[in-house]
Each structure stands twice: as structure tokens, then as C-alpha cells.
């Protein structure tokens, strides 16, 4: 296996503050009274905390179906729940289960399904009723190995940010926030692991994508060594460096909406 | 409480929902939080702090629930940043007290790879560098945000050590990363265990952006060390979660959480010199 860290990444990635912008906007509200939040889109059923949990359920259902279809594409192929013949059958790329992308997508698939099943069971009759596998078309049947991994990784990364962006829609001190965060953390682990897997495959020349950071970086800008070893990082700027960023429900639904068939 | 009315229409749903969605013990703390806002106290350090937070975060000061929780987070980030710096210095052949350099590009691995495979060693060392800066940034962010309210629990002499017989992080990359790994795992469980005590969603959201970063760090280090990327229940050097969302299902479905008092006791015992 070749080195998975081109020299360019070592320097460039640490210099970048690519994850900082949105976090700064969000963190400005820290320690201030909670501002009134806009509503979640009315297409998500329920009110209050239960609407937020239905939003989570919609995303988990999408992820679970994406994983199932991605595994078909990477391995033996097969028939999806799609009713349309053009997308109903996925031809497999016939990769071995020992390949690390197949290995981790196989490992994570049942976890996403478990998140979906947990939320669905917990919500019971309040759960969003329009979930069915036939609703998802990810276009996987024509994707390369690299594209499949990218799409799964993007879904996990979106999940991390979507949960964070949904927090303001919970009621303050909601008893469900901790459970939602307990799911969100696993999405972060998955996103990091799949990034690492992609970096390894990139180093081996198997996928063409550039090496990417496995976690939000701290930008070098503004650092100066403090007297006691503290870094004096832009005092009182309200910006948290090196933290995951949020994505609003509108942004999330715009990103994933194309995968959900309306017919 | 209008949304709760929906579940009231179906008692079976409501029972299932509450059983599954609220982990054991959480209901108690949440109820206590509701009851405990804004009462004065003779000590200026605890004015406005609820009884639930006062008892849940022993020794952590602050003038409101959120400030106590953020000082708890600052306690852990200060510890993590200090120990990451010790680890980075050890892996880079620098004296333990060398401050974090203004430029991350000066760091280079000088120790052997140890148990880390040669194909993953460069990544493992890079993560050590990256995460050392990020943990310092988390600490600085909390410190700056708290301003005059910043008051983390620190060792009496300000010195931290690793939970090894020598107190040092080790002399090869594998050992060093293996000794850093429990810090991240403890951090993820600590943040998640503190969530019920945060009184507003803006603060909760910001804390969560740091929390999931710790989850990422933990997964990355585990991968490099050839371990399960987690979440797991039992990890050497990390307090075992006394409760979790759904203990009956596979351990990797939900992150684990720890009571603040458990974390504080374990951290001071293991890492305060």
C-alpha cells in the first residue's frame, strides 16, 4: 500500500480553514437567549420535537436505502425496490467483500437501518408514513466505485450537519436531544472512517479523489503562541475552530430531495 | 406542551416512545432542571445554578447552569489540549514543555511507528498534529467565550500526566496514539452526558459541533490503531457507561454517555499529576 498522505495535503490542509465559516455564524449565538426558530418544512409531519424526529427518520431512511443500493452496486448487483425497469436493477461491480470500501459500507449499512428502525418504532403512529424503498433513486446503476463511495460519504457528512442544524427546532431541554446526539456522533464516526477509506484508496490509485481531512481542521490563521502555551485565537470572535458545521433543514432537503421520487 | 398531546392520543405509543427515547435517569435530571432555575444562593459562584446542576457537576463553578456546563467542557478541553501537546512533543522529539508552534508545518515524526502499520503511520502522525491544534482551539474557544467566567477544574500545580506508570505518553507512535485515544473517548461520553443540563439550544448546538468532532477523532485514532471505530461499550482507560440509550441492541448504534461526576473523578485521578 502506498503512502496515503501526499506532501501537498500535509501543508495545505492544515493551512485551510475550510470548515470555519458556518461555525462562526452559528457560534455567535452562544450564551445568548435562544432566538425563536423558523419552522421545519411543512412536508415533515408532526409538530415540535416529533417533527424534528420525523425529519431525522426521513434522513435515516434515505441513508439506509442508499447503503443497501450502494452495496448492490459495489458487489453482486441485484434488484432494488424501484418499480421502474430503468432503475429497478443494479448491475454489480463484483468487488470482493475484503475491499475496504465494501467492508465498511457493509459494516455501516445495518447501523443506519437500526437508526431508522429505532426512530420509526419510537415514533409509532406519529412516524412519517411515506417511507418506502421504492421512493429512492440514487442513480447508482451507472456509478463508478469512486462515485459510490463519494455519495455514501456525502450522505453521512450531510447527516452529521443535518442533525446539528436540527437542534434549534427541538424544545429547549428536550429529553430527545441526547438521543439524537447519540445517533449524530455515530454518523460523524462513519463520515471520518469513509474519508479515511477514500484517502487510502486514493493513495492506491483506485479512486481519483484528492486526499481530504478526516475531521474539521483548525486554520493556522490568527495563531500566536501565548505566554503559557495557550494559543491566543482571535479573542472573543465567537468562532469555534475545528468543529463540525451545521446545515439547515432547507439546505438538507434541497440536497437530498432529488433522490426521493414523488411518484 | 402541545406536541406532547399527540402521543397522549395513543397510550401505547406514548409508553413505547418515552421508554425508548429517554434513557434511564435522564428523566430525573431533566425534571430537576425544569424546577431549578434562577434561585439565589449565598455563594456568588452558584447564584442562578439549579440544584440538579450543582449536584451533577461537583467542584465545577459558574453563575448559571450553562456556565457550569461550559466550565466542565473547558475542564476537559484544557486537559485534552495539554496532553495532546505532550503527546505531539514526544512523537516529535521535543521537550515536553515545548509550546505548540505557531506553524504546524514544523512538526515531524522522530519516533518509530511501533504497532502502527507503515502504510498508516504518516496518517496517524498527521492526525496527532491536526488534533493537537484542534483541541487547543476548542479550549481557546471555550475560554474566550466564557471570558471572566472561565474557571476550569485544573490540577493544583497545573500539571497533567498520562495514565501510564511513568506518566509519559510513550516512546513510539503506536503507544502514544493508544494513550491519547482514551482521552477522545472520554470526551465524547462527557459531552453527551452533559447535554441534558444545557438550558438552551444555541449552547447545545455549539457543544454538539465540538462533541461530534471528538467522535471523529476517536474513530480516526481507532482506525490507525487497528481497532473498531466505535462506538463501543468497554474501552480500557475509559469509564464504562453506566447507562445508555438502548443497552439491549448492538453497541455501535448509539454513542455512549457518562455522568459528569464520573468523568470528573476519573479524569482527576488518571490525569492530574
Description:
The complex is a heterodimer of chains A (263) and B (273). In chain A, helix 3 (48-74) packs antiparallel against helix 5 and helix 5 runs antiparallel to helix 7 (177-203). Chain A has helices at 7-15, 20-27, 48-74, 85-88, 100-123, 145-166, 177-203, 249-256; strands at residues 77-79, 89-91. Mean pLDDT of chain A is 77; it is low at 1-36 and 220-239. Chain A is mainly α. Chain A starts with 6 loop residues before the first helix and ends in a 7-residue tail after the last helix. Chain A has a single domain (46-216, 237-259), classed as Ferritin (Up-down Bundle). With 273 residues, chain B is mainly alpha-helical. The N and C termini of chain B lie far apart (48 Å). Classes of the chains: A mainly alpha (263), B mainly alpha (273). The interface between A and B is large, with 96 and 92 residues.
Using only CA atoms, what is the Rg of chain A? 20 Å
CATH superfamily of chain B: Ferritin, core subunit, four-helix bundle
What portion of residues of chain A belong to β-strands?
under 5%
Helix/strand order of chain A:
HHHEHEHHHH
Shape of chain A: globular
The helix content of chain A, as a percent range, equals 40-55%
Mean pLDDT of chain B: 85
Number of domains of chain B: 1
Amino acid at each position: 500500500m502506498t503512502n496515503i498522505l501526499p506532501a501537498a495535503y500535509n501543508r495545505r490542509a492544515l493551512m485551510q480553514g475550510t470548515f470555519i465559516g458556518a461555525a462562526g455564524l452559528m457560534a455567535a449565538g452562544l450564551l445568548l437567549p435562544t432566538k425563536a426558530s423558523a419552522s421545519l418544512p411543512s412536508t415533515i409531519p408532526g409538530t415540535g420535537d416529533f417533527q424534528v424526529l420525523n425529519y431525522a427518520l426521513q434522513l435515516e431512511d434515505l441513508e439506509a436505502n442508499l447503503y443497501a443500493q450502494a452495496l448492490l452496486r459495489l458487489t453482486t448487483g441485484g434488484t432494488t425496490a424501484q418499480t421502474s425497469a430503468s432503475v429497478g436493477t443494479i448491475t454489480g461491480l463484483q468487488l470482493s467483500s475484503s475491499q475496504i470500501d465494501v467492508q465498511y459500507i457493509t459494516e455501516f449499512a445495518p447501523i443506519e437501518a437500526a437508526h431508522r428502525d429505532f426512530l420509526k418504532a419510537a415514533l409509532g403512529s406519529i412516524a412519517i408514513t411515506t417511507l418506502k424503498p421504492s421512493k429512492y433513486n440514487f442513480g447508482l446503476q451507472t456509478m463508478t466505485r469512486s462515485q459510490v463511495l463519494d455519495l455514501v460519504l456525502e450522505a453521512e457528512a450531510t447527516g452529521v450537519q443535518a442533525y446539528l442544524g436540527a437542534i434549534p427546532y427541538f424544545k429547549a431541554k428536550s429529553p430527545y436531544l441526547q438521543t439524537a446526539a447519540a445517533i449524530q456522533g455515530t454518523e460523524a464516526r462513519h463520515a471520518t472512517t469513509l474519508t479515511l477509506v477514500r484517502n487510502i484508496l486514493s493513495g492506491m490509485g483506485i479512486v481519483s479523489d484528492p486526499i481530504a481531512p478526516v475531521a474539521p481542521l483548525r486554520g493556522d490563521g490568527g495563531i500566536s503562541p501565548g505566554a503559557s502555551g495557550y494559543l491566543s485565537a482571535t479573542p472573543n470572535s465567537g468562532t469555534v475552530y475545528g468543529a463540525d458545521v451545521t446545515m439547515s433543514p432547507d439546505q438538507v432537503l434541497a440536497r437530498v430531495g432529488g433522490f426521493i421520487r414523488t411518484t | 406542551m402541545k406536541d406532547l398531546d399527540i402521543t397522549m392520543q395513543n397510550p401505547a405509543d406514548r409508553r413505547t416512545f418515552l421508554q425508548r427515547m429517554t434513557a434511564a435517569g435522564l428523566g430525573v435530571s431533566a425534571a430537576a432542571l425544569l424546577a431549578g432555575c434562577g434561585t439565589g444562593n449565598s455563594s456568588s459562584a452558584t447564584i442562578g445554578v439549579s440544584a440538579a446542576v450543582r449536584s451533577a457537576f461537583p467542584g465545577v463553578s459558574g453563575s448559571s447552569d450553562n456556565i457550569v456546563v461550559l466550565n466542565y467542557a473547558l475542564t476537559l478541553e484544557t486537559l485534552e489540549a495539554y496532553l495532546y501537546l505532550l503527546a505531539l512533543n514526544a512523537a516529535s522529539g521535543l521537550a515536553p514543555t515545548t509550546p505548540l508552534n505557531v506553524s504546524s508545518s514544523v512538526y515531524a515524526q522522530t519516533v518509530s511507528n511501533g504497532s502502527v502499520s507503515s502504510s498508516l503511520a504518516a496518517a496517524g502522525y498527521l492526525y496527532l498534529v491536526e488534533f493537537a491544534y484542534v483541541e487547543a482551539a476548542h479550549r481557546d474557544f471555550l475560554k474566550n467565550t466564557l471570558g471572566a467566567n472561565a474557571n476550569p477544574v485544573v490540577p493544583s500545580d497545573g500539571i497533567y500526566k498520562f495514565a501510564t506508570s511513568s506518566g509519559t505518553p510513550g516512546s513510539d507512535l503506536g503507544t502514544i496514539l493508544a494513550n491519547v485515544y482514551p482521552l477522545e473517548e472520554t470526551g465524547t461520553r462527557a459531552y453527551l452526558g452533559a447535554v441534558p443540563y444545557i438550558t438552551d439550544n444555541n449552547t447545545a448546538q455549539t457543544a454538539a459541533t465540538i462533541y461530534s468532532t471528538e467522535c471523529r477523532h476517536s474513530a480516526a485514532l481507532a482506525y490507525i490503531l487497528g481497532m473498531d471505530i466505535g462506538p463501543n461499550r468497554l474501552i480500557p482507560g475509559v469509564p464504562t457507561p453506566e447507562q445508555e440509550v438502548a443497552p439491549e441492541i448492538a453497541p455501535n448504534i448509539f454513542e455512549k454517555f457518562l455522568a459528569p461526576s464520573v468523568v470528573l473523578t476519573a479524569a482527576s485521578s488518571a490525569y492530574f499529576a
